[in-house]
Protein: 2-iminobutanoate/2-iminopropanoate deaminase
Organism: Halovenus aranensis
Amino acid sequence: MYDNITRTETDRRSVSSPWSRDQNTQLVFFDGQIPDEETALNQGIQQQTRATLEHLCAVAAESGIEVQDLLRTTVYLTEMSQSGAVERAYDEFFENKRPSLTLVGVEALPNSAAVQIEATGVDR
């Protein structure tokens, strides 16, 4: 398994569930990603967010998950006042169909980054 994937879960049908799903569907959980150290030290939050999203999508692609298969993300921010810049970066990066977004304020992140993003995708 890849280093940046925490685990995968098979989405199995349940006898008690009124909904049926494809038995081959798996959820894939990606560990938090941050921008590289140079970007973290020299760029603003919008650029850091974009760089982190690019890195996250590269990690997802390694495991066969495409951008449109990312379902949800959690974004950790050192400055919650910058949430608008994060949303602008998301709008630019994902264009029409972006995953759900949860913002969480934190005191500090590795490499002096201002943003860290973890994600859940679906492997169809």
About this structure: The chain has a mean pLDDT of 86.
